[in-house]
Amino acid sequence: MSIKLIVGLGNPGQQYMFTRHNAGFWFVFHLAEQFNIALSPDKKFHGLTGRGQIHGHDVRLLLPQTFMNKSGDSVVPMVNFYGIDNDQMLIAHDELDIPAGSIKLKTGGGHGGHNGLRDITPHLGSDFHRLRVGIGHPGHKSKVSGHVLSKASPDEQIGIDSALTAAFEALPLIMNGDLERAREKINGFKLPS
After folding, report:
1. Cβ 167 vs Cβ 134: under 8 Å
2. Count of structural domains within the chain
3. Residue 75: beta bridge partners?
4. Is residue 80 packed enough to be buried (19+ CB in 10 Å), middle (13-18) or exposed (0-12)?
5. Residues 36-81 pLDDT 10s
6. Which of 26, 97, 166, 167 has minimal Cβ neighbours within 10 Å of its Cβ?
7. 192 part of a folded domain
8. Is 147 a catalytic residue?
9. Among 94, 95, 99, which Cα is nearest to 159's?
10. Residue 191, burial from CB neighbour count under 10 angstroms (0-12, 13-18, 19+)
11. CATH code at 32?
12. Catalytic residue from among 21, 93, 114, 147
């Protein structure tokens, strides 16, 4: 089954653009740029949307503009409107449980405390594909909110960008539905020391 919708989770607005919580946005913005897909506001789906060809596949892109904890208000209507199955959807999001510079491709599972996923799964179930972009954990749960809403350090940013590049290199496999090989490639990514 090939991917028909790629969603990047994040918060709208310039003040959040470069914060760790927007790692999912960075992935989709880069895709749009690389494959010349124009993103424009779409009131019906409360997000920025675009449609184009990625490695020979017709794909829609979505960046919810609802704020993270209301991501479902954007993703659910779009999925329902276009009749997209969960196994045709890839959601890119930041992941506290993975260090910056690591990235994981996963299908299904819980929301892991991620507010964007927490808002989507009650409506769609959880068996969609996720690209989990590591941003590292600040060490204590009281520090999580400040951590995700602040910028990565320069070293962390280099790690995150390198991990995203590894995901782009595996994109042809993802688009063709060869998720097993894509997972090996992405999950095996290690930052050069």
Report:
1. no
2. 1
3. none
4. exposed
5. 999 999 999 999 999 999 999 999 999 999 999 999 999 999 999 9
6. 97
7. no
8. no
9. 99
10. middle
11. 3.40.50.1470
12. 21
